[in-house]
Amino acid sequence: MEDNNADRGKADDANINISEPQEIQYWSEKLNVPEEVLKNAVRAAGTSVEDFSEHLTQNT
Known about the structure:
- There is one protein chain.
- The protein contains three helices and no strands.
- The chain is globular and about 25 Å long.
- It has a domain at 18-58.
- By secondary structure, it is an all-alpha fold.
């Protein structure tokens, strides 16, 4: 199977992967948050977009 870099960041819209720079950029833009806020919130709440959003709502 060929690795297609163009698809990175969009493969799983339910989870945020902060191990990949492309995913960090994608989610930061999609969720309209700075990259550091994104990474810190994922570390605190987990990779689920739903948990991430709930964490941000409770902590801003």
